[in-house]
Amino acid sequence: MSEAAEPQGRVLIVAGSDSGGGAGIQADIKSVTMLGGYAMTAITAITAQDTTGVHGVWPVALEAVQKQMAACLTDIGADAIKTGMLGSAALVETVAEGLDAQARAVPRIVDPVMVATSGDALVDAPAISAIASLMIPGAALVTPNAPEAEVLTGKAVDGINGQRRAAEALLERGAKGALVKGGHIPGKVLVDVLQTETGEWIFESERIETSSTHGTGCTLASACAALVAQGQSMADAVDAARTYLHDAIRHAPGLGKGHGPVAHNWKLLDQES
Predict the structure, then answer these.
(1) What is this structure's pTM?
(2) 87 in catalytic set
(3) DSSP labels, 235-256
(4) Per residue in 89-108, pLDDT tens?
(5) Domain count, the chain
(6) 136, pLDDT greater than 70
(7) Residue 216 among the catalytic residues
(8) Catalytic: 257?
(9) Residue 51 catalytic?
(10) Which of 83, 215, 219, 260 is catalytic?
């Protein structure tokens, strides 16, 4: 069974692996664990990746992805599903079919990963179209950044009004919630817009000037999934996930020569100090 009477914090993550540890499956596992959840994975691709860029991508066989999902859902079950890098239309179809068959009632947090922080493209056009048609409808939350929201909706997203229009468009396309992030929009204050079927929330935080931004999208989405899996409302989960990410950026260890990772374990570092 993939559902439980009481949320147990179980999160199945369907995403690609980041060898550098800052994004993808690695960031997801760290975030879910640090926020009290239980992380399971179905790895969709292996990447050779570091803070300077993506140096290679090797897709995992579709059958292997399906088997990983089925093994987790059949035995352990899930209270939330988080999807990340889905690099082909065939993979999107496989994932969507698996979730419909085995986890239809489980809330899905969909991070429509399209481009790495370094600027490297991670999905092709047919995959983007499949994500829009198969993953967004019914999703509990979709978490695009401004460029991703523009691609998915055709709306210009260069400020809060654009973010609101894009969120509305995602809800019209069947999502139950949309968090249109403002990290790519210039300004001293970072604004994220959340819209759900029940209302709208505007979240603001001071922008941290840093190059340690690798994996921030993965981290935020998986943090939301961990908190939803433990029974929090979507608005509360997004609020707490943003706080977790903000502090993880603030404590970033400064690793690598490019866009460095955040400190997913910042809570442990605070306890030691």
Answers:
(1) 0.94
(2) no
(3) HHHHHHHHHHHHHHHHT----S
(4) 999 999 999 999 999 999 99
(5) 1
(6) yes
(7) yes
(8) no
(9) no
(10) 215
